[in-house]
Design brief:
Elements lengths: L5 H13 L16 H9 L3 H21 L3 H28 L15 H28 L5 H32 L1 H5 L1 H26 L5 H9 L5 H16 L11 H22 L21 H5 L1
Helix pairs in contact: 1-4, 1-6, 3-4, 3-5, 4-6, 5-6, 5-8, 5-10, 10-11
The protein binds fe (ii) ion (2 copies).
């Protein structure tokens, strides 16, 4: 299948439409929470941001859908817009049911360049989802909330995975339609958008720091799920979960590859660092993120040589 062909467009749009799940957030099996679990849910510092992000996502996708002429792409985009709005409604239902103290922030002006807004949003979703995969695995393993509740969020995670697969294919299709020049600068375009997404995330972390009395926002979030947070393990979880979640999609569709490749390179470096530090204990002091253990299944380099 040629990327940018009509066959490609039909495949990624049809796959998106066919994997839609029908549900109403109000009638989902929301569990009754014991006081300790309710306390944990109420102490999560990022519900306001999640609620706002989902409302904003619905507004951006709906506005962009209006500008699209291709009826096949338009239908799929309209569905994504509805799903984002449903995510916001799901969070609203949770806020009401469990009495969370989450104000509804006024919506920002989306500006005149809605196409760039949509692309920024799409790459931002790729970044958020990749990190979210690892975070969700940690929450699941730590049983941060009852399984019935996490199962509801599992549906949401699946939908976000569909969104980013759809987005990456739409982006490649759109670039290919623009011709060879756009195709040849595509990795640079991705890098530019990912850097913008990272900058926005850094801005968010800063805002969170102020809200959390100067504590690091991301670290606060993660340490709520698991004591003794280890960066390498987190990255391994992100990478493995991304591969697992992406494996259920049609093999002919493109997947986001930039962040998994970046993570694979970083993990290789971290493992090498950890192994070197074990071989030469007097020369390299392990940083806290390395963890100091050999990767599973790795032979000890010294013993292997004997
Ligand atoms: Fe969403
Ligand atoms: Fe989404």
């Amino acid at each position: 299948m040629k990327i940018g062909s009509q066959e490609h467009r039909d495949a990624f749009c049809a796959h998106f439409m066919q994997t839609y799940i029908e549900y109403d957030p109000k009638t989902l099996p929301w569990p009754e929470l014991q006081p300790a679990a309710l306390d944990r849910l109420q102490s999560v510092p990022f519900w306001e941001e999640v609620f706002y992000t989902e409302r904003r996502a619905g507004a951006i996708v709906a506005a962009f859908t209006e500008t699209v002429g291709d009826p096949v792409v338009k239908e799929a985009l309209a569905l994504q817009g509805e799903e984002e709005t449903r995510h916001a409604n799901l969070i609203r239902v949770m806020i009401d049911k469990y009495g969370l103290d989450v104000p509804e922030r006024p919506m920002e002006d989306l500006g005149p360049d809605i196409a760039t807004r949509f692309k920024d949003f799409g790459f931002g979703e790729c970044l958020d989802s990749f990190l979210g995969f690892g975070l969700f695995k940690i929450a699941w393993q730590a049983e941060f909330l009852p399984r019935e509740m996490l199962q509801i969020f599992e549906t949401l995670m699946f939908e976000e995975t569909r969104h980013i697969v759809f987005f990456i294919n739409w982006m490649a299709y759109t670039e290919a339609q623009r011709g060879w020049l756009a195709r040849s600068v595509s990795p640079l375009t991705s890098l530019r958008y990912y850097l913008r997404a990272l900058r926005r995330m850094a801005g968010l972390a800063n805002r969170g720091k102020q809200l959390n009395d100067g504590k690091n926002f991301a670290a606060t979030q993660v340490s709520m799920f698991l004591d003794g947070f280890n960066f390498r393990r987190f990255l391994e979880d992100c990478y493995a979960e991304n591969a697992r979640r992406m494996s259920v999609f049609e093999p002919e569709l493109l997947r986001p590859s930039f962040l998994p490749q970046l993570a694979a390179g970083a993990l290789k470096a971290l493992r090498l660092w950890a192994v070197r530090a074990q071989v030469e204990p007097n020369t390299v002091a392990l940083p806290p993120i390395g963890g100091g253990r050999l990767p599973e299944g790795a032979a000890h380099p010294v013993r292997a040589e004997q």
